[in-house]
Amino acid sequence: MTTNFYNVIITPTAYREISRIYEYITEDLCAENAAKRIMKKVEEEIQKLKYTPRMHQRIKKIDDLKRTYRRIVIKNYVLLYTIDEETRTVFISHMYYGGKNYIDNKF
Fold it and tell me: Is the pTM here over 0.90, yes or no?
């Protein structure tokens, strides 16, 4: 039986970055409810990728492996991901503060 769904994997790097953002908002900004709302939105957007991974904008960032990245803007943050069509897998690669120059950042 063939499935139309994609497997979504959060890389260890992305997981650390998402955790740091949550901690920053919760502890440094003392805004636990805001952090929870952002994390809920992150979770919702990641779930949507199972069904429609190409719905978000491609960016010009290409790494050494020549992967094409797409981005999801969530409030002041950007979630970057790649798609492996062969294995029907979406890899959540990074989450950055939107004001950061993530295009030129070496991954």
Answer: no
